[in-house]
Every structure is written in structure tokens, then in C-alpha cells.
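REQUEST ID: PR-0412
SUBMITTED BY: lab tech R.K.
PRIORITY: routine
TASK: structure prediction, single protein chain
INPUT:
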Amino acid sequence: MYTALRLIVIGCQFSGLETLGMAVVDNPVSAWYGHIPVPRMVKNQVNHLLELRMIELDREITGALSRLSRDRRQWIVGTLAVFLLLHIRELDAGRIIYWARYKDSAGFWIHPSRPSALIDEGVASCNSLLRYFHCFLGRQPLCQNWDEERSQRLVGNDAELVASIKALQSCVSMMRQAGWIGRNASQLYQDGHPDSVGLTISSLIFTEMADAQVKNFH
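STATUS: complete
OUTPUT:
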């Protein structure tokens, strides 16, 4: 999913001799300066196929999450899966913020739905996934002392799993100290840079359930 999203963000360009009549962009202020972009229709079709693949993978992964929640020893896998899904969704929504904020006088936006409506759909799906995480997987393992034997017995004394959870605890602690948890995407967004909203929605799995709700994304 992440690879498909990055391909959409990066865009297509020709790599061989055939350019379908397209020329090198010589405008120094253009994002395509020095490159030969593919025709808009081709780009739209490729992006559509990539988006369909993302939808397919999203369904497969979310379907697998329900099975992971039944096994305590799969908590770390489920948590990382939810985190990555949220991260992909926040970046995907982030690439649409520009279109929601500015008037498209040139008519580049061709999707039948309004940009703000698509963002709201993405936010709703993230809120649903956040609620699922907090209700069925939960943050409890992040709050436990995994140096204690009674905690280790909960996961069958699996040393590798204990080490993985402790590593995640350390990462979350560093994120919290750096102020990276619970940030507001609408304040962080930079025009044309969807990565600027990274670790906004996805960080909410490390908050209390009452605070794990996306607000004012765009």
C-alpha cells in the first residue's frame, strides 16, 4: 500500500525513447522541470489503477486484523499494522489537502467527489480504525513493565516478543518527549508536501481512547 501511494505521489515519467510527443519541461518553477511527464490521461489511468490496488490491500489487511486481535502474542503485529494503515491513510488524505484549500481554476481536479468530502471519508475511516485498535488491541502492553516475570508469562515467555514490545515502548517514549503525539495536521500541512502531515493521525494509537479522534485535519 505504501509503495502504491508513493508511486502516486511521485508520478509517472518516461524512461525510454518513446515520449508520445511530450517534451522536456523547461520551466524552472515547475515540479516537472527537466523531466518529460506522461500525458495527463495516462497519468490519471495509472493513478486510478494504483488507487484500486490500495483499496484491495486495505481490505485484506483490515480483514486480517480481526484474527490478530484474538491472540495476545500477535499484539505487536496488530499494533504495527494499524499504525502503518493509519500512516498511509493520513498521507493519502494529506495529498488532497491542497485541493481542498485552494480553488482549482485550471480544472485539474477530475474526481467526481469534492476534495473535502474525500478527506472527510478518510478521516472517518481513520477514526473507525482508531476505535477498533483501542477496543480490541489496546495500549495496555505499552503500559506494562516487561522486565517483570508476570508480564513475560502473559506472552509465554517469548523473549523476542518481549524485546519487540520494549523497543516499541522506547520509540513511543521518544515520540512523546519530542511532542510528536497528537499533533494537528491542519497546522503542520505544507502546500504540495503530504509528508508534512505524517505522524499526526497515526500517533493517536499511543494516546488514551478519549483523545484518539481526528479533528480539524484540513
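NOTES: Residues 33 and 174 are 39 Å apart (CA to CA).
REVIEWED BY: pending
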